[in-house]
Design a protein that fits this description.
alpha/beta, seven-stranded mixed β-sheet, six-stranded mixed β-sheet, about 350 residues, binds NADP nicotinamide-adenine-dinucleotide phosphate
C-alpha cells in the first residue's frame, strides 16, 4: 500500500529546483521500492509560491531555469512565503532550502522550521543556520511536538556523515571525528598542491569553474567546515556545543611553502574539521592540518569530501565521496525523507 506524503518546499534555487526534478525522476522508484507517493504541494521563493492540494507537477518545476521563473507560473501567489507558506501548505514534511549564511543569522529558515514543528510537520533542512545557532532549542521543540528533524543537506549533503555515525556506529563510543567537509577549499588546496598555484591563483581557478561562490569567505575562512562539524558534534555528543567552543581558521594564509613543508614531513595540508575526546571532553576545531600520507583522508582530492570516525568498539571507519553539487544536495534531502518514513 502506498503512503502519500505531502511536501512543502521553501527555497527554489539550485537545490530546490533539483529537488523538484528528482521527485519527478524518481517517482517510479519511490513507489516500487519504498511504497512512497511524494507529492510536492507548495514551492516558494522569496516573493511567493505555487501550490496545489493534490500535488504540483514536479517535472515542470524541475525544468525551470531560475528561481524567478516560478513567478511566471499559472497560480503563482505573490506574498505566499515564509510563515504564510508553512501554514498554507498542508504538508507532512517541510523542506527548507533557503540561503543560510549562518554567520549573519538564521532566517528565514529558523522561523519556518519552528512554525512547521509547532504544526506537527517533519522538517528536512539544507539550511545550516538554525542548527548552528539553535541546535538544542530546535531538537527540544521537535521532541516535544513528536516530529523529526533531518539535516543531511546541512552536514556535507551527499557525503553521509550523521547517518553513518548514528546507524552504523550505534552502540560504540565515538572518540574522534575528522572531516574534509568543504569541497571548495579542498579544490583550492588540491590546485595549489598539484599545479603549484598560489592561493589567489587557485581561488581564481575555482571561480572560473563555478566552484567558488562570488564571496568565498565562508568556505576558505573555515566557517562552512566549522558549521558542519558543529552540527555533527552536537548530534553525536549531546547538543551543548556552540561556535564559542571552536577554534576556526581558514586557508587564506596558506602558500606553496607551507605545502612544501607538509610534503617534506610526508604529509599533505588539508582543511579539516575535527572533534576529539580528551581528558577535558571533546575539543572542536576547524582549520588547516597536516595529514600524514597514510591518513585515510590524505588522498581526498578536488571537490571530494570525506569523514573519518574512531570509536571504541567498532574501530576506525572512513567514508569518502558525495558530489558537492545541488543535485547531490537535493538527493540528500530526498534520502532524508525516505529514511524518515522507512526508519523513523
Ligand atoms: N548549492 C549546493 O550545492 C548546496 C549544498 C548543500 C547545502 N546547500 C544549502 O541549500 C540551501 C539552498 O542553496 P541553493 O544553492 O539552492 O541557494 P540559491 O540558489 O541561492 O537559492 C535560494 C532560494 O531561496 C529563496 N529565498 C531566499 N530568501 C527567501 C525567503 N525569505 N523565503 C523564501 N525563499 C527565499 C530564493 O528565492 P529568490 O530567488 O526569490 O531570492 C531562492 O529560490 C542553502 O542553505 C545552502 O547552504 C546548498
Amino acid at each position: 500500500m502506498q503512503m502519500q506524503v505531502k511536501i512543502g518546499l521553501s527555497g527554489f534555487g539550485h537545490v530546490g529546483r533539483n529537488f523538484a526534478a528528482l521527485l519527478a525522476e524518481k517517482e517510479g522508484d519511490l513507489s516500487r521500492r519504498y511504497s512512497l507517493d511524494l507529492q510536492l504541494v507548495l514551492a516558494a521563493n522569496s516573493r511567493g509560491a505555487v501550490s496545489a492540494e493534490n500535488g504540483l507537477d514536479p517535472g515542470l518545476l524541475g525544468r525551470l531555469q531560475a528561481s524567478r521563473d516560478l513567478d511566471g507560473l499559472k497560480g503563482f501567489t505573490a506574498g505566499l512565503t515564509g510563515p504564510a507558506a508553512v501554514a498554507a501548505a498542508g504538508a507532512a514534511v517541510w523542506v527548507e532550502a533557503t540561503p543560510s549564511p549562518a554567520r549573519e543569522g538564521f532566517e528565514p529558515a529558523f522561523t519556518n522550521m519552528k512554525l512547521a514543528i509547532a504544526g506537527g510537520i517533519h522538517v528536512v533542512t539544507l539550511s545550516k543556520g538554525p542548527l548552528v545557532h539553535a541546535f538544542a532549542e530546535i531538537m527540544e521543540l521537535a521532541a516535544a511536538a513528536g516530529v523529526k528533524i533531518k539535516y543531511s543537506g546541512a552536514t556535507a549533503a551527499a557525503l553521509p556523515t550523521v547517518d553513518v555515525a548514528l546507524a552504523s556506529l550505534a552502540g560504540s563510543r565515538i572518540t574522534a571525528v575528522e572531516g574534509i567537509l568543504n569541497g571548495t577549499s579542498n579544490y583550492i588546496l588540491t590546485c595549489m598542491e598539484e599545479e603549484g598555484l598560489d592561493f589567489a591563483g587557485a581561488l581564481a581557478r575555482a571561480r572560473q569553474q563555478g566552484i567558488a561562490e562570488p564571496d568565498p569567505s565562508l568556505d576558505v575562512g573555515g566557517w562552512d567546515t566549522a558549521y558542519k562539524l558543529l552540527i555533527i558534534a552536537n548530534t553525536l555528543f549531546g547538543g551543548a556545543f556552540t561556535l564559542e567552543h571552536m577554534d576556526v581558521q581558514g586557508i587564506e594564509g596558506i602558500g606553496p611553502a607551507d605545502q612544501e613543508a607538509a610534503r617534506r614531513l610526508g604529509g599533505t595540508l588539508k582543511l579539516v574539521g575535527s572533534a576529539r575526546l580528551t581528558g577535558e571532553g571533546y575539543i572542536l576545531q576547524a582549520g588547516p592540518q597536516i595529514l600524514p600520507g597514510r591518513h585515510p583522508l590524505a588522498g581526498v582530492r578536488g571537490t571530494s569530501k570525506g569523514i573519518h570516525f574512531v570509536s571504541d568498539t567498532l574501530g576506525p571507519l572512513t567514508v569518502l565521496g558525495g558530489p558537492s553539487d545541488p543535485r547531490g544536495a537535493a538527493a540528500a534531502a530526498l534520502k532524508d525523507i525516505i529514511n524518515l518514513y522507512q526508519r523513523g
